[in-house]
Each structure stands twice: as C-alpha cells, then as structure tokens.
Amino acid sequence: MGNEIVPTTEYRASKKKRRNIPLLPYLFLLPALLLFFTFDYLPIFSAFYYSFTEYHILSPAEWVGWENYRALMQDTKFWIAVSNSLTYFLIIVPLLLTVPLFLAILVNQKLRGIQLFRVIYYLPVVTSMVAVAIVWKYLYHPAGLLNAVLQGIGLQKEAVNWLLNPDTALPAVAVLEVWKSLGFYMVIYLAGLQTISQELVEAAKMDGAGRLRVLWHVYLPQLRPTIAVILVLSTLASVQMFTSIYIMTGGGPFDSTLTLPLYIYQKAFVELDMGYATAMGMVLWLILMVLTVINFKLSNGGRVG
Amino acid sequence: MNAKRKRMGIAIARKALMYLLLLLIALLFVGPFLWLLSTAFKSNAQDVFTFPPDLIPKPPVWDQFVEALTVIPFPKYLLNSFILIVVMVPAHLFLTSLTAYPLARMTFPGRDLIFYAIIGTMFFPEEGKLVPLFIITQKLGLIDSWWGLIIPGLVGGFSIFLMRQAYLSIPKELEEAAILDGCGPFRMWWSIMLPLTKPTLAALSVFSFISVWNSFIWPLIVLKNDDLYPLALGLAYLSGTFGDDVRVMAAGTVVSLLPIIVFYLMMQRYFVSGMQGAIKG
C-alpha cells in the first residue's frame, strides 16, 4: 500500500469525452519536458556522437570513428587521472561509510543541546567548496596551522609542504573532501537510525548484548538501505571530484592529484579538444556505472536483511 | 545510599566525557572557520602562521575588509549572486511544483514513462555531460550570459521527485470536495494543493539557494566576462591573483561565507526535514 500512487482526479471535462487523451497534464509538463530534453537528453545522446568526432568549436565536427578512444588508451595522463580517481574513491568512500555513522550515533543521544552539535557538524556542507578549499590551502601551507600543530605536539620535525609533495597532495585533498561532507552523510544516517525499532534494541540489550554487538547485529542490518544510499552517493561524489582540486593543486604536482573530471575540463576548455574530452566523459560514465553495479551487489540492493 | 551516589557520580562523569568528545569534534568542524575569522582581522604586524595558534587578533583591524570590498570587485560578485538567486530560486520552485503535480495526481498515458525519464537524468552526472551540454548551450547562443547559467539549471530530477512525494501525501478527499465546488485544474493546483506542500517547498528553496550560491563548475565554463561572475567563481578568480595576500583573501572569504552561514542558521530546521523527506521517499 505504502508507495501506491494516490488515486487521481478526473475532471468533468475529461469525463465527458473519456476516450480522448486529456491534454491538461501535458500542458503542466511541457516546459519542464522541453528543458529536460534540451539540457539533459540532447547532451547525453550527442555525447555518443561527439566522442567519435574531432571537434574544436570553430570548425564543424568531423567524424573520426574510434580514433579518440584509441588515443585515450595510449594517453598516460588519462590513465594517471583514472587511477587517481580510483585512489580518491578508495580513500573517501570507506571513511564516509564509517565516520558519519559514528557521528550520527553520537548526536542521536538524548542530551541537552545536542541539536547545536548537529548544526555545527553539518556546517561545512552548506559552505562553498571554493571558500573552504581556499581556507584549507592556507591550513596546509608549510607555515600553516597543520604544520604548526604537528610540530608543536612533536609528531613532526620539519614542516611538510602538503600540497606540493606528490606523496601527500592526494591524501590532503581527500581529507578536505571528507571533512566537508561528513555532516551530510551523518544526517542521512540519522534519518536511518530513527527508523530502527527501539524494541529490537531493548530486546538485544535484555539478552545481554554489549554495545558493539548491538551495533553489529541490530543497527547494521536495519541500516542496510541507508548504507546503500550512502555507498552510491559517496561513490558518485568521489569519482566526480573537481572543485577542491582545481583550487588547491590544479591537478599537480606532477599530475599526482589530477582526476578525470579535471582532465576533461583541461582538454575541453583549455585545449578546446571537445571530441577527445567527450570520449573521456563517456569513460567517466562507464566507470560510474561499473562502480554503481558493484555497490548495488555489495549492499544486496539495499534490502533490509 | 553510597552505591546510589556512586552510580550517579559515574553517570555525571560519563555525561561530562560525552560533552567533551562532542566539543572536540565540533572544534574540528569549526576550527578552520575560526582560523579564517581571526586571520581576517589580524593586522600586518601579527604573524598569521604561529604555534600555538594565536587566534586573538591584537588589535583587530578592518583594513583588509575595506580592501576586499574596494580594491577587489567583491561587491559586484555578491550582487551577481543575489540577482541569480532572486531569479533562479522562485523559477525553480515554480517549474518543479508545476511538473510534479500531474505526475502525482493525474492519470494519463505515458505518465510513468515520463516520470522515470525525469528521474533517470539523475544517473547521468553533470561532469560526464559537461562538454556536450556546453556545445548545445553554445549553439543556442547562451554562452557568456546569465541566461546560460539560468536556463539549464531550472529543472532537476531530484527536486521533482521530492515534490511528487509531497503531492502524493495529500488526501484524495480534499481534491474531491474541491471538484464538487467547481474548482478548475489550475486553481486546484495553485490555491489548494500547492499551499499544502509548504514544508517541501521550504526545503527545496533552501537546497536551491545553497546550490546557486555555491555553484562553480558551470559558471566557470559558461562565463568569460568577469563582470558576470557569481561569488564562488569570483572568489576562485581572486585566489589566483591575490592568493599571496592571506589577510585580504581571508577577509574576502569571510564576506562570501557570511550570508550562507546566516541563512543556514536561520533555516536549519528545513535542512533536516528536507533531507529526511528525501530519504523516506
């Protein structure tokens, strides 16, 4: 019953001429459908076409068959971008699956003023990535706060230039990305936690289950749909990283932080190589599709179980 | 008695520890913003990179705010973002509620197909279609104008999905009574159904506000003329040219963050309700 569509209205006018197809609903839909067609489906379908062309905006697109894809396979920078994107994925997704759950459990307690903490933890989510990336760039500065703290508590002898060192730049950007979205996933987990039946939790406690066992055997199985949502959303976000990298490193040093979206941007809008960039966009979709299918399998389609 | 008191003592200690933990985590989230705020007010005589971090500006100065608002075209970028919001948020709400209505409350051939086609757009992430979208926008002559920012961003699968959920939860009896009273379809939508979806409309306007205010990639691609830049793009542009002047950049960043943070604190209850509405659906 829950998700069934509410029985709909039939107007007198349409009752009289029941056989005719009613015009009215299409009138409501027309503006949006035009927009979706022009700015979603047209780009999606023309992407297939442009990925097989050589196109530099000024001259008409020229059909080149598989040439772009062939060139992609031999483009080392492309493979670096793909492998970086996967590294971001492997760092970011596990963190966003676990830490926000811990935060959600923490702010789901009945404590005075707990709402204030929820508001604070969510704050970075609403701020613009450009602004926080600028702030974090200064925090990562050799003379910045992070180095000062690490040296101050003796964890580090010399200042590290986090964003200019090919070994640390990628994790540094990933940490910012995680920090910014922890609150978002915490709220999703909170909504999931509120659907868990308290009776089950109480029953488990009566049977003498400790905290960890309650978490593992009661919370996690019931959070399955929530976890599936988070898996899909965080995967999408991690593979699409752009703004943080654009601001903090521009893809460097030595392409160590370059991602596929950033490389697409450079090819299309700096070098104006539209066909090649579109072919990369197709690969990006393919990667996302494969990851989503894997996620879906892993989370058992989000069924409670 | 003693055991009871002891237990109470433990409970209080545990509570105190819990608050300590909550506060420490809160510090991780607001720390960068606090550092930014203190840097923005520090004078040139005070080192901004020290340990232990010296957060109190001695004395606090306004100079870099004056500089950020006069030397750099910050007010222009702020104004651009405000104009875009005033145009885009209402237009987005209007189109979303118009589109979701028949999908939730009318039967007609192709309804489910259209619904899935709209929802399906969410599965093609922006960055994969960035280039062909640019090509089409360019062919329509919308490049380097606000129309190129506004028109492609007017509808979205996610908002229509949320709005449809809101219409679906309205009881059918209400509609029947209105029809008996001779209410026509457009009035039914505008004056009966729409007011009943206010919580969702509020949540949607909040999401829409945030996304317009923070939008970056699309403006970056569409706009060449920096007179048209919205705030986030303007800020990025400035960090390229004024990046070495930490204090001025900090002041500018504070100015860019302030409206959105105030807006968030005012509207925060709609964030949670909106998010939960999205998940329940």
Automatic annotation (TrEMBL), chain A:
Residues 82-295 form the ABC transmembrane type-1 domain. Its main location: membrane. It holds the Pfam family BPD_transp_1. It is found in: Cell membrane. It is a multi-pass membrane protein. Keywords: Cell membrane, Membrane, Transmembrane, Transmembrane helix, Transport. The chain crosses the membrane at residues 23-50, 86-107, 119-139, 169-191, 227-254, 274-296. The keyword Transport applies. It comes from the Bacteria. Belongs to the binding-protein-dependent transport system permease family. This is Carbohydrate ABC transporter membrane protein 1 (CUT1 family).
UniProtKB/TrEMBL annotation, chain B:
It is found in: Cell membrane. GO terms for biological process: transmembrane transport. Residues 78-267 form the ABC transmembrane type-1 domain. It is a multi-pass membrane protein. Pfam families: BPD_transp_1. The chain crosses the membrane at residues 77-101, 113-134, 146-163, 201-221, 248-267. One of its GO terms (cellular component) is plasma membrane. CDD domains: TM_PBP2 (cd06261). Gene3D superfamilies: MetI-like. InterPro entries: MetI-like (IPR000515), MetI-like_sf (IPR035906). Keywords: Cell membrane, Membrane, Transmembrane, Transmembrane helix, Transport. Belongs to the binding-protein-dependent transport system permease family. This is Carbohydrate ABC transporter membrane protein 2, CUT1 family. It comes from Laceyella tengchongensis.
